[in-house]
Design a protein that fits this description.
The chain is of the alpha+beta class. The chain has 2 domains: about 160 residues, Regulatory protein AraC (Jelly Rolls), CATH 2.60.120.280; about 100 residues, Homeodomain-like (Arc Repressor Mutant, subunit A). Helix content is about 45%, strand content about 15%. The protein is built from 11 helices and 7 strands. The strands form 2 sheets. A 4-stranded antiparallel sheet has the order 1-7-2-5. A 3-stranded antiparallel sheet has the order 4-3-6, with no helix packed on it. A hairpin with a 2-residue loop joins strand 3 and strand 4. The two termini are about 30 Å apart. InterPro entries: AraC-bd (IPR003313), BAH_dom (IPR001025), Homeodomain-like_sf (IPR009057), HTH-like (IPR037923), HTH_AraC (IPR018060). This is Helix-turn-helix transcriptional regulator. It comes from Winogradskyella echinorum. Pfam families: AraC_binding, HTH_18.
């Protein structure tokens, strides 16, 4: 079981290259981290072009297509989580926390934005930590004779946590105009705690953000054009879609994780708001 982690990730390092072939693992890639240690050039991502420089970090999700176009010799490390990595999340034991890792990157998967994928960091120390961990896990992984699973597993966990912590996502279709850091804090809190419904009640959110119970809903609607409870439910249902698309979790497991009474309750709500049953949604994915 433990060695499964090495069978479901691919780590590649290219040193001082000026030409990068299209990765043979792209068709089975689920999530990818690309760290450009040094070099200058551009990356064409989903038809759009963005420049890169030393210490640039990009993240890619399943449908992303990218091509590195180097202008100077470029050193790149790529960590690719294959599609098989996050399957059967509920069957993994506590020493192999795939479900927890999936939650860490779920906000990226939930995003319908087509923004470019370059990572921005809240602090320089977070960037430095991530770079150090990427280098560590790559060194261990590429040492095929004596790689240390403990180091690889725990480094990957921290890497995903750092990425999740620094994702700054605003759904332009939902958020009318964000001028206040307070509203973004509330949105981030909702996203981070979508699996903890007890802290997402109006009362709990009001206490968390030092507002009156009857004011926080009004405040949220004013800044987003969406009622607070509806926003939370919409984000839950987006998480349901993400689980159905990218994992083998059962309907009952998803319902339990997201605070629905049972799979029947989840199916009823999903069909009401999405216009399709859970089974039909999954059938359309095939």
């Amino acid at each position: 079981m433990a060695r499964t982690i090495l069978e479901n990730i691919v780590i590649q390092k290219y040193k001082d290259e000026t030409f990068f072939t299209f990765c043979q693992y792209t068709t089975i890639r689920f999530f990818e981290i690309v760290y450009i240690e040094k070099g200058q050039g551009t990356i064409k991502i989903n038809g759009k072009t963005v420049p890169y420089a030393d210490n640039s970090i990009f993240v890619f999700i399943p449908d992303d297509v990218y091509i590195i176009q180097a202008e100077t010799p470029t050193t790149v490390t790529a960590i690719k989580f294959l599609k098989s990595f996050f399957r059967n999340t509920s069957s993994q034991n506590a020493t192999f926390p795939v479900n927890d890792w999936f939650r860490k990157i779920e906000e990226i998967l939930n995003s319908e934005s087509h923004q470019l994928r370059e990572m921005q960091f809240e602090t320089t120390s977070d960037r430095a930590h991530l770079i150090s961990l990427v280098n560590m896990v790559a060194t261990e992984y590429l040492n095929k004779q004596s790689n240390d699973l403990f180091i690889i597993q725990n480094s990957l966990s921290v890497i995903l946590h750092l990425i999740a912590r620094n994702i700054q996502y605003i759904n332009a279709e939902t958020i009318k105009e964000v001028k206040s850091s307070k509203i973004q804090q509330i949105i981030n809190f909702i996203h981070s705690n979508i699996y903890n419904p007890e802290v997402l009640s109006t009362k709990s959110l009001a206490e968390e953000f030092h507002m009156a119970d009857n004011y926080i809903s009004e405040y949220f609607k004013k800044h987003t054009d969406v009622p607070l409870k509806k926003y939370i439910l919409n984000y839950k249902l987006k998480s349901v879609e993400t689980r159905l698309k990218y994992t083998d979790a059962q309907d009952s497991e998803i319902a339990l994780e997201l605070g629905f009474t049972d799979s029947s309750h989840l199916n009823k709500i999903f069909k009401t708001y999405k216009g399709i049953s859970l089974s039909d949604f999954k059938a359309n994915l095939a």
